[in-house]
Amino acid sequence: MSGSEDPVEPGPPAAPQPAERRVELAVTPVTGLPEVRRGDDLAALIGARADLRDGDVVCVAHKVVSKAEGALLPLPPDEGLAAARRRLARAHARRVVVDAPWVVITETPQGLVCANGGLDASNAPAGHLIALPDDPDASARALRAGFAARLGVDVGVLVTDTFGRPWRLGLTDVAIGCAGLAPLHDQRGRSDRSGQPLTVTQSATADALAGVAEVVRDKGEGVPVVRVRGLPGVGGDDGPGAVALQRPAAQDLFPRGRGMLAAGLAAQSPAPQGDPVPQGDPVPPSDLEAARRAAAAHGAQAHEVGAADAPAMPASEAPTRLLVRGEGASPTPEGERAALGAALCTAALMDLGHRARLAGRVPAATGWLVEAAAGP
Question: Which of 25, 152, 158, 168 is the most buried (most CB within 10 A)?
Answer without folding.
Answer: 158
